[in-house]
Amino acid sequence: MSSAQITSPAVTVRCPAKVNLELLVGGVRPDGFHTLSTIYQAVSLYDEVTVEPAETWSVTLRGQYTEGVPTDGSNLAVRAAKVLADRHAITQALTVTIRKDIPVAGGMAGGSADAAATLLACDALWGLNSPKADLEEIAAELGSDIPFLLHGGTAIGSGRGELLAPVLARGTYHWVFVAAAGEGLSTPAVYREFDRRHGGLDIADPRPTPELMAALRTGDVDALAAVVSNDLQPAALALNPALRETLDAGMEYGALAGFVSGSGPTCAFLTASAEASIDLAVALSASEIGDRVHRAHGPVLGAHLR
Ligand code: C5P
Questions:
Q1: Does the Cβ of 20 fall within 6 Å of ligand 1?
Q2: 145: Cβ below 6 Å to ligand 1?
Q3: Which of 298, 31, 259, 300 is nearest to 162 (CA)?
Q4: pLDDT by residue (tens digit) across 231-282?
């Protein structure tokens, strides 16, 4: 396909962030990734990607989180577009505009959200109508969290996080997220610290916790708050000890549970209701802990056309 053949206007796709309600980390696989058992939930913080045909590749960043995001070919959105293009022998260059409102390097899969959004946007722009399984396969090649961001809702992730199974989940959960001040945490560095702390132990393959699945089945936020967990949290706290203060503040101001989101450093707080999340967000903003404070609810849809 040459650029002259592309007549479609720009396509925009919105993609949510994720939080891990449970992140159980097992042993290291031969490919270097860790075996995981996680429960993902898509939450209403969004990045938005617009793709338009162009003569040369370019990336433009907008929104509140742009620092440290590459605008060259190493940007995950560009890599996603190029993998899909290669599969279909498309040589079209694109202008990719990314509105970034998900914290960067924050443990909420912002870069993965951009890749998921770009796959869907390019599929529509190029009129490919790819089967869902094809996009999911490319997504899994590009990153462990990307298939879930296409999927959305609440789901179990296994393998290295890319294998998804549905979860019976009721209710809407109200969250407050505190993005950390300063630089984010590198996911590989957090996993390395996890390995260092576990001294090369051969950790058994983890499985979802039955109490957590039961809490989701009944939509019981108090029961859920009692069992949320993140095996990466001690490693993230070791690399950024100031996060402990953020977690303590959130609990003091009324969160039902507070934990590091994924590999961090964003801290996630589960609250009892939409009103409670407003109160907590106001209190945390006033205390000037962390950088920015965001309210969100979940589960929400995965990547979708605007
Ligand atoms: O798949 P993704 O690109 O998100 O992974 C980023 C990094 O996180 C990997 O390179 C690896 O160091 C670490 N990782 C891991 N085990 C997983 C997922 C990620 O060790 N299951």
A1: no
A2: yes
A3: 31
A4: 999 999 999 999 999 999 999 999 999 999 999 999 999 999 999 999 999 9
CATH assignment, 11-167: 3.30.230.10
Render pLDDT for 86-115 as a digit per residue (tens, 0 to 9): 999 999 999 999 999 999 989 999 999 999
Q: What is the pLDDT of residue 107?
A: 95
Find residue 293's DSSP bridge partners. Answer: 178
Ligand 1: which of 24, 148, 187, 239 to mutate, most ligand atoms within 8 Å of CB? 187
Residues of the chain with CATH 3.30.70.890: 173-298
Residues of the chain with CATH 3.30.230.10: 11-167
Topology classification of domain 173-298? Alpha-Beta Plaits (3.30.70)
Question: CA torsion sign, 20 to 192 to 83 to 163?
Answer: negative
- 47, 114, 123, 145: the catalytic one is 145
CB 219 near ligand 1, within 6 Å: no
Q: What is the pLDDT of residue 3?
A: 42
Confidence of residue 288 (pLDDT cuts 50, 70, 90): confident
From residue 32, alpha-carbon distances to 28, 29, 195, 205 in Å are: 6, 5, 11, 15
Note if 145 is an active site residue. yes
Say which residue, 183 or 282, is predicted with more confidence: 282
- The question of whether 18 is a catalytic residue gets the answer yes
Q: 280's torsion region: left (phi>0), alpha (psi -120 to 50) or beta?
A: alpha
91: CB partners within 8 A, 6+ apart = 1, 2, 3, 85
